[in-house]
Amino acid sequence: MSKPPHDERPTPRRPAVFTLDDDAPTATAKDAQTNRPAEATKRPPRTFAPDISITPDAEDPFLREMTDDEIVPIATPRKPGFSFGKLAMAAFGTLLSLAVGIWIDDLIHNLFTRADWLGYTALTLLSLGLFALFVVIAREVAGIYRLNAVQAIKERGAALALQGTASEARQLVKEVAALTRHRPETARGRSVLDAAEGDIIDAPHLIALAERELLGPLDAKARNMIVQSSKRVSVVTAISPRALMDLAYVLFEVVRLVRGMAELYGGRPGSFGMMRLLRDVFAHLAVTGSIAIGDGLAQQVLGHGLASRLSARLGEGVINGLMTARIGIAAMDLCRPLTFKALKRPGVSDFVGDLRPSMGKDDKPL
After folding, report:
1. Membrane-spanning regions, if any (predicted)?
2. Taking CA atoms, which of 54, 91, 105, 159 is between 20 and 30 Å from 330?
């Protein structure tokens, strides 16, 4: 009988140390035998350029948290009240209306004395004008009524979020759903609320669900509107050769942004309602002191290193864009039917990344 073949197994490899860095030296056989890693070559000390300034983390606006003093106050509509300016406008407006009425009456009488068909033509034109004026007034009243309804819903929602019954919260949610029904973005939210109508019995939770499902998509669209308006203002301000053109375009963009914000949340104001919204927005900015711009704001928002690299026109464009974003946030506060509870309220710092000029590969913020 022949002997079975001897089972020869390969000798196991000794453990060795490897490095993944290409610049580091490879492990030698001696190091592998002694199980000691190869020592990397130490980098020689180097000095920084004298023009580089390092911003501490505590002073970096992109790293530190915002304090309570830096949080943007919430815009609220002004309460109507008595003023001598309104009294003067009402008195002179009534006097002017009487003068126009007497002039029209004399005109029609004179036309009838000349020819009957001229008098009847004047009466027909007067009737058409009065009908058109009635339609315009009705639209303005309806727009103001919608704005008042939004503010009433907001006040009731804030009160019910603290203390309220489920039936009152359901009625409030139905009003918010009816107010935003014209937006296709809220279709899914309305279906979710209909499915969960009998499952939630707590008023604050029901209002929070309505805010997330109904106003969440609208908030995203509102943020996009603010970003686009701020970018347009920033670009036009940076390339415009005249300050008057800057001012005219900024006013045009602000009016369009505020009107779009009101229509987004269901306000749809008329001309007088739009004037009222703009008055509330600018009054809020004047009270909070957020309308002032300068180098201090540029350094706080953009950082010292980046602000020093911007040209004067480019820096002015960025600051005007941030001010437009600030106006958009104030308009968002005024037009939104519910206050920010379940969702985060946007701030000016949220738009810095969208307006900050793009830097090169080697140009990093300090």
Report:
1. 87-105, 117-138
2. 159
